[in-house]
Amino acid sequence: MKAHDQMYIGGAWRPALGQDTIAVVNPADEQLIGHVPAGTAEDIDAAVQAARAAFPGWAATPPAERAARLSALSDALAARKDELAETITAELGAPLPLSQTVHAGLPVLVAASYAELAASYAFEEQIGTSTVLLEPVGVVGAITPWNYPLHQIVAKVAPALAAGCTVVLKPAEDTPLTAQLFAEATEAAGLPPGVFNLVTGLGPVAGQALAAHEGVDLVSFTGSTAVGRQIGATAGGAIKRVALELGGKSANVILPGADLAKAVNVGIANVMSNSGQTCSAWTRMLVDAERYEEAVTLAAEAVLKYAPGERVGPLVNAKQQVRVQGYIRKGMEEGARLVAGGPDAPLETGYYVSPTVFADVTPDMTIAQEEIFGPVVSILRYEDVDDALRIANGTVYGLAGAVWAADDEEAVAFARRMETGQVDINGGRFNPLAPFGGYKQSGVGRELGPHGLAEYLQTKSLQF
């Protein structure tokens, strides 16, 4: 791997223009594992200029050739899958099996899917006497989070490249080593200089400079709603396009007659995966009054399978640990019944939080309204189906969710009324080609599949 003290700009590894660095810490043992440059506005400017210079040539590259480069990128990621998984485990703290299957495995499939899309997508169509062209939007500023560091990079960079855009990536400061490995993979894939650029740095400095840069045509951001609001305001001032994938408070709705044990167990597993650090996690479990206490018992038993340090990793840093512990204390203060876990750290070393389950949660409680981003499940009681819908839709978020019912038709009927971007029906599996994104304050735009590619295109019509 290249030295950690370099950034990738214009097809070459180079030192940062400034002297400041960012420490990278393993959240499982709190040990320092490296430093990366704290990029400045000047570094961002250099990367944007490189992307602008490369844009005309890459935009004019035939889609079949862009597809070939993306296929090579997928192959390069697959070849380094073990190294990527180990790096993600080191800087994020995810258990290695999760890093191997999800964190390092899924991006290989997503990159390959965009290779196929680039080769087959209809970038031109005829509508009456008009020829309609779908053209790349330009230079993309991609700002990615730490919770799925490689997946979120690929989910932005791959469709942008497929569309013919060039990219400047500013990864999360907690997980920058994964981004450096990804940059090496773009080298191995043979991308022309300047098509992909990497600047590591802090959000308020490098991230803000990227979002505000006049040479950036679209900003794609994944992270908190608060930061997304700031980026949207910055981009709005320049009439610049944005794609925002933000927070969530997704409902796991268990309708009367559903397989309760399966719904509860899958629901608990969904939240515990990645230590609850998943924007689409089903953190609110909704159960009818008649079976409520049975569901609470099942949930309390199910969460015991997720031992910190084994099946559940730490949170990404000390700040997140304190934040999630504060939410657990807030739930107890507001009257929720603690049936598993609690605010005390389960291990002496590492930023761990006990997998926690609350019962007797009411819709107005803080833990039922705000995104916690940790291994915390709130179980809410509903009286009838309309009440369940009211509760499910009763937050400012609308990213994902689940519905369990005696048959798929009943579940689909309920899902159609949910104000959310993606709903799993009776345990439906994640589809990397389906559009991912939210309603309300969960964001603007969609990622993955053809809908994700469309975010990076603009439309021109030629009249004859």
From TrEMBL:
| Domain Aldehyde dehydrogenase per the UniProt entry, residue ranges | 18-461
Family classification? Belongs to the aldehyde dehydrogenase family.
* Keyword field contains Oxidoreductase: yes
* Pfam families xrefs: Aldedh
Protein name listed in UniProt = Aldehyde dehydrogenase family protein
Among InterPro entries, the record links this protein to:
Ald_DH/histidinol_DH (IPR016161), Ald_DH_C (IPR016163), Ald_DH_CS_GLU (IPR029510), Ald_DH_N (IPR016162), Aldehyde_DH_dom (IPR015590)
- Which UniProt keyword terms apply here? Oxidoreductase
Catalytic residues, per the record, are E245
